[in-house]
Write a structure and sequence with these properties.
The structure is a single chain. This protein is α+β, with helices and mostly antiparallel strands. It contains 12 helices and 22 strands. The chain has a 17-stranded mixed beta sheet that branches. Strand 17 and strand 18 (400-406) form a beta hairpin. The model is unreliable at 1-23 (pLDDT under 50).
């Protein structure tokens, strides 16, 4: 994927530019994201924005394959890009997931991408997180994890054993590894759900899985083999956003070229729910800053940490976004939802069944309440988006039914046992003008905006 992406962009795979409308004046594009707490809150909980699945210079393939020098010193410009991006996009928690062939060899505190003025978060005398304070006072919490067949996140320490034994556990794909991750204070997650077998998902002791993975949506082989999508289409369309001619489309909107539901991942998740398993969901950024080293029209590389973090995130519902224990509790319980924030940051989204939050268990006969979100700080001069929510019931045994849908607040009787999940789609008409000479067609398609972890009913 990485070589193909760069090659396609370098040879200008896109179309010839059309004349731009110089008279069109638009609100300035915002390359940042708002502080997540500005997006709402209810019942004492507020959203904490998180990146789950993130590679630092402690992954062998990060930073264009040059994560560290011969002396093991991290690639400083790449690391600074990572840290700056987390501040620019107001990420509250960054769950680092570096590959075991590097991270397992390191002493645990080394892996937090620390600086001298970062704060170490200590529990019982051991460091479990670090916190970066941004120039505007925003606090980003780093935790350590790994991406292999399974993806442990938010570990308090390395798994028990020698370095060789660590490697073996991090590369295991069974419930034994999941238990080891829990014993090390972390959670057990699945990356690249689209390529994992149901047998692996059933055998592993997992807390959550990726319902969307960025790499999967771009890589031609994964698109063809696991998503059933045209292999080269994403790269061809994304190349339009490398256009440096006047009137080029806003480069951050390149994701519109390949944002599509990862249906195999969704299907596997729903299969597990139908089997009575409780599984939270996340979006996987899989950011390495190693795929598209070509500068886009804004002068920034196509796959910059900042751009990828601007595209989408995960929102954990917590009492304190700066408390790593509160964030981990939210993820462990499934009190979280995904958000494709390139389509707009969702304001006012809320799902609950009385006092029962996402990830909780309600009684048959309860009522599910869904508040439909709006786009944060949408300029009234832009076209209005079309927003639609669906409530999907996954019954024991796997029967799947849409039980409610609409663009206004929903009140849904929970008449039967099973898992009830909410997804929100959007037709982002408001982004059409920013596509400029490419035309608005990519903004006239219904796209996934939010996937929420379920509420369970017994």
């Amino acid at each position: 994927m990485r070589a193909a992406a760069a090659a396609c962009l370098l040879i200008a795979c896109g179309k010839d530019p059309a004349p731009a409308d110089a008279s069109l004046e638009l609100p300035a594009w915002d390359p940042t994201l708002p502080i997540a707490r500005q997006l709402g809150g209810a019942r004492g909980l507020v959203p904490a924005r998180g990146i789950v699945h993130l590679h630092s210079p402690y992954s062998h393939d990060a930073c264009d394959g040059n994560p560290r020098d011969d002396n093991g010193v991290p690639n400083e410009p790449c690391l600074l890009d990572l840290r700056a991006a987390l501040c620019t996009t107001h990420v509250d928690f960054a769950a680092l997931t570096d590959h075991d062939d590097t991270m397992a060899d390191e002493d645990f505190p080394t892996l937090f991408s620390m600086r001298g003025d970062d704060r170490a978060v200590m529990v019982d005398g051991a460091q479990v997180a670090s916190q970066l304070t941004c120039s505007d006072g925003h606090v980003v919490t780093f935790t350590v994890g790994g991406e292999n067949e399974l993806m442990p996140i938010m570990l308090d320490r390395h798994v028990t054993g020698t370095v060789a034994e660590r490697h073996a556990i991090y590369n295991d794909e069974t419930g034994t590894a999941g238990a080891a991750f829990h014993d090390a204070g972390g959670l057990s997650w699945i990356a690249h759900t689209e390529s994992k077998t149901l047998e692996l998902l059933r055998a592993a002791s997992i807390d959550g899985l990726e319902v969307y993975n960025l790499h999967a949506n771009i890589d031609p082989d994964i698109r063809r083999d696991f998503l059933g999508l045209p292999p080269g289409a994403a790269l061809t369309e994304a190349a339009e956003f490398a256009d440096t001619n006047p009137g080029h489309p806003e480069p951050d909107l390149a994701m519109l070229a390949f944002l599509t539901p990862n249906l195999p991942a969704i299907d596997k998740w729903q299969t597990l729910l139908g089997e009575g398993r409780k599984v939270a969901v996340s979006n996987g950024s899989d950011a390495h800053q190693n795929a598209i080293p070509v500068a886009f029209g804004d002068g920034e590389r196509g796959d910059s940490y900042r751009r990828v973090m601007r595209w989408f995130s995960n929102h954990a519902l917590v009492t304190d976004p700066t408390d790593p224990a509160a964030v981990q509790t939210a993820l462990a319980s499934g009190r979280m939802y995904t958000a494709f924030e390139i389509l707009g940051s969702p304001v006012g989204f809320d799902v609950h069944a009385g006092a029962i939050e996402l990830g909780g268990t309600a009684a048959v006969g309860s009522t599910l309440s869904v508040a439909i979100p709006t786009v944060f700080a949408l300029d009234p001069s832009l076209p209005a988006p079309t927003i639609h929510a669906r409530v999907i019931h996954v019954a024991p045994g796997g029967n799947i039914t849409e039980v409610a849908a609409g663009s206004d607040a929903l009140e849904v009787p929970l008449a039967a046992a099973g898992a009830y999940r909410v997804e929100v789609t959007i037709v982002p008409h408001h982004l059409g003008p920013y596509l400029h000479d490419l035309g608005p067609s990519l903004a006239e398609v219904e796209l996934p905006w939010i996937y929420a972890s379920p509420i369970y009913v017994e």
